[in-house]
Design brief:
about 150 residues; globular; about 15% helix
Length: about 150
Amino acid sequence: MRRLAKLLAVTVGSTVVLGGGVVAMASSSNTPSQGAVGGPPGFVATIAKSMAARMGDSNPTSAQYVLTTRQAAESLVAGDHVHTNPEVYLVVLHGHFSDPGARVPPGAPIPTGTQINFTIDPVTQQILDFGISNQSLSDLPTLGQVQSLTLP
């Protein structure tokens, strides 16, 4: 069964607070800026690298992203309905992850998995949704053109 942990992301200056932890963001601009030709804006890779480290694997085995809508991303990864539907980057990382900041009942184990996924709003550069599981997202190409992501 898919285990999904939702985290609240709040931007404070150029820092994102996630589930009790902090992930620094390198970009202070609030507008998307294209990275390398055909690649995502630089903040996508920076946030992905920070999230990987925050979740216990600073060198994930693979990283991918797709530009899609929030509703399409959440429908695919969690079966959820969301109340806003901006264009987002859905980032998927594979490795060995655990979420020490997750809110779990006393005595319950923290969520762990071999895959994390999260959506990033390209305008605010905030993480909107987060999931951790042991399942692969084989249907990811249904959302758009999936690209490899090189982490800094």
